[in-house]
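Sample entry (362 residues):
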Amino acid sequence: MSAAGRPRKALRIVGIGAVALVVVAAIGIAAYRDNNLHADERFITSALDAGFTEKQAVVDGATVNYAEGPDAGPALLLVHGQGMEWEDYATVLPDLAQRYHVFAIDCFGHGESAHDPALYSCATNGDAAIAFTAQVIGGDYIVSGHSSGGIIAAYVAAHDRKHVSACVLEDPPLFRVTPVEAQEGAGTFAWHDGYTVTHAFLQQDKVADYAAWYAAHSYLFAMFGGLQDMLAQQTADWCAAHPGEHVVNAWVPREWTRGMYFMDDYDPYFGEAFYDGSWMAGIDQEALLRAIECPVVYLKATTRYGDDGVLYAATSDEDATRIQECVSRCATTEIDSGHDIHVEHPDVFAAAIDQAAGERQA
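Predicted structure, serialized as tokens:
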């Protein structure tokens, strides 16, 4: 090859390499957007493919929406956290369906269950869950709840001791749930990113869509700094263009926006009940936990604080110790995870259910 030909060949190689990099980058961006837009949808489809069907029951005059899986073993009742619905468990449902008869309910104010502020208390949700199991399950069952659903699960275990054979408490904010507790110190993430945001939303009438309001005013999105306004506008545009659809954002990591996914089916007055304290009305948390007789597996996400002192975890280490001391038969698993353990570590969550099921037989 001549000296003149070598540079031309080198340029061709560089050009091919540049094109390859552009193609790889384009594929990566497309995959990133696709995951942000459709990951949850695919998980839900997998749950339906595993045999789950959505149904409704009328319990004491109120509609309880739920999904039921194949009858593959002991009955298992799943109670989601605030802002979610039964589909939030889609990451673990196909696995659990292989050895349990799973019933995943929508709490009042969420999904397709009744939306009525008169129903938005722990006691009302707990009593409805117990009535639901008597009506639909009709026998013994394991109960597991996440976050505020974990407090409901504790209520169910304490008040239906005859039928609850085991309980899994997935990172419940016990002793950090009342307005006084949630504002202790610098406050909790749930207080700053949830209850105060819903309260402010309900005090105004300019923005009709809660997800759009949340994106513009959330503590979480403020961490994006100068990008919050743009992200809020993207969310508002999505809501306007996709009324009645779950909320996604193509450009923000799914892990950051997942809390908004089911906001189209969420009643902010449920959050208001936490802001004003009515959600825990009449409940002594310590007495509630001491009333549980069945074996309990307590999943605790690692305690973290923000630079501003805000408690990012559901509970502090001291709160977790208090929970363990109150529950007579408590096995604790602490995991380095965010709050949604069943989403981030589905294998750990499934193992906790299996552990509780094994304890129930011991």
